[in-house]
Amino acid sequence: MNSLYARHRSVLPDWLALYYDEPIEITHGEGRHVWDAEGRRYLDFFGGILTTMTAHALPEVTKAVAEQAGRIVHSSTLYLNRPMVELAERIATLSGIPDARVFFTTSGTEANDTALLLATAYRRSNQILAMRNSYHGRSFSTVGVTGNRSWSPTGLSPLQTLYVQGAVRGRGPFAGLTDERFTDAAVADLEDLLGHTHRVAALIAEPVQGVGGFTSPPDGLYAAFRRVLDRHGILWISDEVQTGWGRTGDHFWGWQAHAQAGPPDMLTFAKGIGNGMSVGGVVARAEIMNCLDANSISTFGGSPVTMAAGLANLGYLLDHDLQGNARRVGGLLIERIRAAAAGVGAVREVRGRGLMIGIELADPVTGRAAPEAASAVLERAREDGLLIGKGGGHDTSALRVAPPLSLTVAEAEEGAAILEQALRSL
């Protein structure tokens, strides 16, 4: 056991998970690569859990952070803050939500927590609909709407949560249906569920489930849900913490794959916008955002330094069409991964869109989830110089591939080749 690992174990919680049998210390990065304390270079296909969205050590972001830190680091929301107003203006316009207001937080957990506070206050109800296999954060309220047993340490909650079918296309009672019949069945399930409830505040849903293993419903399902929700006055919160900013390639926001019934009432964001800095937030229609009748501030949400990073990062992403790059290079990468997985019995499914790709592993005989196989591939990929992630609602049996959006074709080919060797080592 190396000394830093021993020190980690002695002072940090046992439940603070570490990847790899021999955990690594990442000391620096550049572009799509990172280096560990031993000097080994890795191609990074996980980006700090989808957080390093554009590139490691992106000069434009580094410069913006340094310049702002040289002026003032912190002031809080009690004072006017030019970078915060400028970033809020850009995000409000990009969100697609009419008459939008933006509130900044420091994380996706806190963003979802805020959205739940707004929804329950606006609707005067603590009933929430959430999706099976979902993940929305690690706070007391967000754990209470997380439908993934691996990330739900307590059943206690200030909310009454009811879980809806439809987010997982390949498992469950509707798995054998066509997309159209799957959507119809999920809508019927929602209608039936609402027949058993009192006043529901909101549905919170990830357009593509992140921790759940990059699984998603057929396009248009949440639009069909929205039509039902609207009849009951129920709000729709789109959790865009992992899907936002063009990562799926086809759309800037995940909700846009379900846009037939209009935009969500609220969307939450975090991770990629700060490119590693602590930025999260909520976008909501003004009447919802302004419904609170008590004081509220944020000490660290919207800090001048993180807002400067967000502005520089968003500008770089838009100026360089990284959404288009995610679509083009992501399309190549998923096809290469599918080819690499062909003939590997343990690969149950390769799914995803853009640079958000999941590889689900299962026992080829029984069809049961294969978490040991997922761990083995994760380890072998690291040994060969590639960092990927894990997830999935059935015992963490899905590999998660989510490189920075500036990934090149050559790097996609290199990563796919390493993944092929790791999968075939099973």
Task: Please outline the helices and strands.
Elements: H1 3-11, E1 26-30, E2 33-36, E3 41-44, H2 47-50, H3 59-71, H4 82-95, E4 100-105, H5 108-123, E5 127-131, H6 140-143, E6 160-164, H7 179-194, E7 202-205, H8 221-232, E8 235-239, E9 266-269, E10 280-285, H9 286-289, H10 304-319, H11 322-341, E11 347-352, E12 357-361, H12 371-383, E13 386-387, E14 389-391, E15 398-401, H13 409-424
Parallel strand pairs: 3-13, 5-6, 5-7, 7-8, 8-9
Antiparallel strand pairs: 1-2, 2-3, 4-10, 9-10, 11-12, 12-15, 14-15
Helix pairs in contact: 3-10, 4-10, 7-8, 11-13, 12-13
What can you tell me about this protein's structure?
The structure is a single chain. With 426 residues, the protein is of the alpha/beta class. Helix content is 37%, strand content 16%. It has helices at 3-11, 47-50, 59-71, 82-95, 108-123, 140-143, 179-194, 221-232, 286-289, 304-319, 322-341, 371-383, 409-424; strands spanning 26-30, 33-36, 41-44, 100-105, 127-131, 160-164, 202-205, 235-239, 266-269, 280-285, 347-352, 357-361, 386-387, 389-391, 398-401. Strands 4-10-9-8-7-5-6 form a 7-stranded mixed beta sheet, with helices on both faces. A 4-stranded mixed beta sheet has the order 1-2-3-13. A 4-stranded antiparallel beta sheet has the order 11-12-15-14, with helices on one face. Helix 4 packs across helix 10 (304-319). The mean pLDDT is 97.
